[in-house]
Records
---
Amino acid sequence: MKTSGSTILITGGTSGIGRALAEALHDRGNRVIVTGRRQALLDEIADARPGIAGLKADLSDPAELDRFAATVRERFPELDIVFANAGISRGEDVTADDWTTADAEAMVATNIVGTMRLAAALLPHLRRQQDAAFVATTSNLAFVPLASYPAYSATKAFLHSWLQSLRHQLRNTSVEVLELSPPYVQTELSGPAQASDPYAMPLDAFIAEVMTVLETGAHPDGEILVAHDRQVRTAERDGRFAEQFGAMNPD
């Protein structure tokens, strides 16, 4: 994937990993477009970074996604990289008497269906570019689930499998398919406490390592991993799945 001189769309780009990626890629001379649901955050980014364009969009709405994709193609015909980064994370206690599938359904709609709809809307455009990339954010929980986040972990496992098939189908096109698989990072994805959790990887350190991986092309099999990820990614292959699962999900 080119890390300079591109036009890059990042969904879920108003906070956390998405915003940090947008700023890092903008620093490297790319034209960056970020999406989000909150206009105030889009305005804040535009004020701080005049070179970053903000587009308000709820990509869980199919009709709005169609309008959004048409706007992107019209305003940014040179778009050649898409980061499908929008996602939500919610813990669930299935032992609670009042547990329902509402949170799980919301995560499936945003994390899975939203990513697939974005791909369907923009892959035809990317295939017409000489050198393009489609990048989706998953999680190391795709490989070893966190039991208190069952549906969230499962949505990321779905995306990991889906991206493998997408990569194979697009192997003879101009579109490189990459998977960004973060560990537990200091963002507010699961709530404000996560942003200062000492057990989480600092966001700036994560982004710096990701950019090094992208710039050096050190992502075998299309997986963008940081060193902190690897013990989780290889746990099943190395016969350590039960041990890793136990460490992440103590009794």
Note: Residues 7-248 form a domain with the Rossmann fold fold (CATH 3.40.50.720).
---
Amino acid sequence: MRHLLSIADLDVADANMLLDTADELKKTLLGRQVRKLPTLRGRTVVTVFYENSTRTRVSFEIAGKWMSGDVINVSIGGSSVGKGESLRDTALTLASAGADCVIVRHPASGAAHRLASWLDQTGVAVVNAGDGTHEHPTQALLDAQTLRERLGELAGRRVAIVGDVLHSRVARSNVRLLTLLGAEVVLVAPPTLLPTGVGSWPVEVRHDLDSVLGGVDAVMMLRVQAERMHGGFFPSAREYAVHYGLNKRRLDLLPEHAPVLHPGPMLRGMEISSAAADSERSQVTEQVRNGVHLRMAVLYHLLAGEEAE
């Protein structure tokens, strides 16, 4: 792998390679008091987040440090971006300063691809940590890792993705990855929160959540992204919760083996109730744990895989 910009860049073998490596890293570190591997010693990883983040940024930082890499977080508020520096100049500055990998989150769809095109000749790897409403590939991969742990192989499994699909890069990456791995995906949302052209996606589209839950192997709730909304997409938060929130009653409609996922942050009481978020079915904290190992796997294959092999 040269970069990780989109799930579309992966084939089945690539996806399984990353998931298998994440599983092996998780087993290797299990029970260790000192969670350190020498894999990225001498490598420099820089995170550049133009949008707020807790889970993604922290897990990439921990992943790099657990592999003995030097991890540097660029604070946009305290960088030259605040003086008007362009994304291109920021990228070339980081490459010139010695970065081996740049992990970027940006509000503009396609920003990670532009960054990679500018850095292609420098040897610096780029990881897309979320670009606008386009994609979030490492989130989809850690979700797939979590589902594999609970369900085994994903081929033939049916996964419901519920909520604000329109503004969700997580949904787009998950649709691509889950269908690549042979799963069936059903999107459940009000018509106002579905993208134009969703009929051409390899998914089933439904609007009635109750009618779907009894026939799925897993359900993934999405955050309602109010910061990306301009106008009224649904009458009220209460109305949304009534029709599309995962509450205790709906939790009981799921088959016994079906886990509940959420990429976070969770809006409790709106898209998911505390009873569902804190239930035994909930894999939310396991997703966060798996995020560290999955992102370790990504950094390994970008920066150390060929040398190790």
Note: The mean pLDDT is 92.
